[in-house]
Write a structure and sequence with these properties.
single chain, membrane, PiggyBac transposable element-derived protein 4, 110 residues, PGBD, mainly alpha, two-stranded antiparallel sheet, transmembrane, transmembrane helix
């Protein structure tokens, strides 16, 4: 077991095999590892939507990798959340549908 620092300033122990794998794994392995942390696609639904959101996930990962290579300091989750906030600010709309026109009809018990 090897002690490694964590984000919360506490040392964690990991098996040596895990450390060797993490040090030698390639880009696809890293992408798969990170994309499973924040799944966007649902188990059910239209196939084209799953493909679209998977491609969107891959695109966000590629942008994140480029961002870090150019000196970016964000973590992956913070980066994703910042992009989401920016997209909502720029393209989001407020849904102001009123629910006053709904009528409540209780079902009588026999």
């Amino acid at each position: 077991m090897i002690e490694v620092p964590s984000y919360m300033d506490e040392a964690r122990k990991k098996p040596k095999v895990v450390m060797e794998y993490n040090n030698t794994m390639g880009g696809v392995d890293r992408m798969d590892q990170h994309l499973t942390n924040y799944p966007v696609t649902k188990k059910r639904g239209k196939k084209y939507k799953k493909i679209f959101f998977h491609l969107l996930d891959i695109s966000l990962w590629n942008v994140f990798v480029l961002y870090q290579k150019h000196g970016g300091k964000y973590m992956h989750l913070s980066f994703r959340l910042d992009i989401i906030d920016h997209l909502i600010e720029r393209h989001g709309t407020v849904n102001e549908k009123k629910k006053d026109n709904q009528v409540f009809c209780p079902i009588p018990y026999d």
